[in-house]
Amino acid sequence: MTTAAQLMDVSREGLLVLADGMPPAQGKVRVRILQPVMTDWVEACVAESRALRLGPTQLRLVFPGGLPGWFFTLAASRLETLN
Question: How many domains does the chain have?
Answer without folding.
Answer: 1
